[in-house]
Amino acid sequence: MNILKTIEELQEVTASNKNKTIGFVPTMGALHDGHISLIKQARNENEIVVVSIFVNPTQFLPGEDLDAYPRKDEADKKICQICKVDYIFMPEISTMYTDEEVLIKANNNSYVLEGKTRPGHFDGVLQVVLKLFNLVQPTRAYFGKKDAQQLTLIQQMVKNLFLPIEIVPCEIVREKDGLALSSRNVYLSQTQRQKALLISKSLYSAASLVGKGEKSSEVIKNKMYDVMQTLEVEYVAIVDRNFNEIEEIQLKNSIILVVAKFGNTRLLDNIWL
Amino acid sequence: MNILKTIEELQEVTASNKNKTIGFVPTMGALHDGHISLIKQARNENEIVVVSIFVNPTQFLPGEDLDAYPRKDEADKKICQICKVDYIFMPEISTMYTDEEVLIKANNNSYVLEGKTRPGHFDGVLQVVLKLFNLVQPTRAYFGKKDAQQLTLIQQMVKNLFLPIEIVPCEIVREKDGLALSSRNVYLSQTQRQKALLISKSLYSAASLVGKGEKSSEVIKNKMYDVMQTLEVEYVAIVDRNFNEIEEIQLKNSIILVVAKFGNTRLLDNIWL
């Protein structure tokens, strides 16, 4: 496994593997089983696997947890080695950004839900993802369904900009008790960790209602708020795959989303129906 | 020579020429000797040559000459054939754009000079150029120095987004009497055409002053305004290669720019020192 730090090193790797399939997993590090599942799938499906580890400043808003964001470089390297990653790209901020930058502005659906709470967040995500895509030139790039809106906006960018890359959406990985894995789970106290189970529980209730034939978004959302009544719920939303809110569940075209807050920690979860 | 209309056709060509050098000349058609010089250079330096002909709506502001922009598809095709172009890409607008688009925002230097008169123009230029770059995946892309600010912003985008493409700036091609070639020259009446010579004349005066040791931007600009006193000059500017205005000429790092208006027609010209 090689650890690359500079643009030149990475571009050399990309150029010399032009005729191989490259699987790419962009991450902000603090790798957990969710990331590992992405890496394993990339390993299964491609000749070369590149993982990037870069806590991207442009996707954090002022006052957000950029400085506190968990960093575990040594553990991350070991995990990548065990997963037979070929290359880790770990650049400095000054390697990725200059003073004068072309900005990417995500489409209107970047201003609802997560984008409403975090205006500009997705512009920063798309900016770094586009830079990384251009550097790695992957055949396939792997993203978790947990960041559903991010995944959708990246898919739209790839389509809009005609990038010759297959975006592979990967299932959410959960703890045995249902909590969706997140690098931010480390911020939770034991009590918060326990209460956080209500998030996935609310989604299971929603799925169960839908299984019984319920289609009304309102009925489903009310049920979920019921389940999470002891939590500070930021939003519950039911959207189609383009992230437009819908009044009725459309099978194979719906995502039910929750965000709940535990102190300063926002936990996201969702289920794709 | 093949004429490609769809994304799929072009992507197939790109994929099957992965290991060849591809020279790309993006144009809005109405090809003149300026374009031909770009195409010839591309032909000399690459195994495959792709020319795009697409009048890009997103770089025209409301009220600008989008509908009136000269279109000469059949003549353009003949020119490309004579220049031994391998592929012309001539998409429809609906092929290039959907209802929901990721936008590209050029950096601050896109709001001075041309960008001041045409706010948003360069965002549209970068958007279409980025799309085309992703489709064609050229080794080298050829741009005329005449659109100096466009060239600079494209170079900055390529650097910012780590696109593995060499941008090749090409010299301005002029009529024998000095008028810089432009697809918009066809709008000029005979009288306007004659008066337009003062533009290049003002630049030659500037170059001559610099040749005699003059460094002051103010002195040079005054001389140019003198030469063009019978014209409606929109601006004269002296900038460095990053398009920051400078008080003194810096050799090998200066561009002197003029824009003059003839009725609704804006003519650009410049000289690189």
UniProtKB/TrEMBL annotation, chains A, B:
Keyword Hydrolase among UniProt keywords: no
Binding site for ATP: 28-35, 144-147, 173, 181-184
Keywords linked to the UniProt accession: ATP-binding, Cytoplasm, Ligase, Nucleotide-binding, Pantothenate biosynthesis
InterPro entries (alphabetical): Cyt_trans-like, Pantoate_ligase, Pantoate_ligase_C, Rossmann-like_a/b/a_fold
EC number(s) on file: 6.3.2.1
Catalytic activity: (R)-pantoate + beta-alanine + ATP = (R)-pantothenate + AMP + diphosphate + H(+)
Subcellular location: Cytoplasm
Keyword NADP: no
MF annotations from Gene Ontology: ATP binding; pantoate-beta-alanine ligase activity
Active site: residue positions: H35 (proton donor)
Lineage: superkingdom: Bacteria
Predominant location: cytoplasm
Top-rank EC class of the record's enzyme: ligase
Binding site for (R)-pantoate: Q59, Q150
Biological pathway: Cofactor biosynthesis; (R)-pantothenate biosynthesis; (R)-pantothenate from (R)-pantoate and beta-alanine: step 1/1
CDD domains per UniProt: PanC (cd00560)
NCBIfam families referenced in this protein's UniProt entry, alphabetically: cyt_tran_rel, panC
Function according to Swiss-Prot or TrEMBL: Catalyzes the condensation of pantoate with beta-alanine in an ATP-dependent reaction via a pantoyl-adenylate intermediate.
HAMAP family assigned: PanC (MF_00158)
Further facts: The reaction proceeds by a bi uni uni bi ping pong mechanism.
Assembly and interaction partners: Homodimer.
Protein name: Pantothenate synthetase
UniProt source species: Halarcobacter bivalviorum
Taxonomic path: Bacteria, Pseudomonadati, Campylobacterota, Epsilonproteobacteria, Campylobacterales
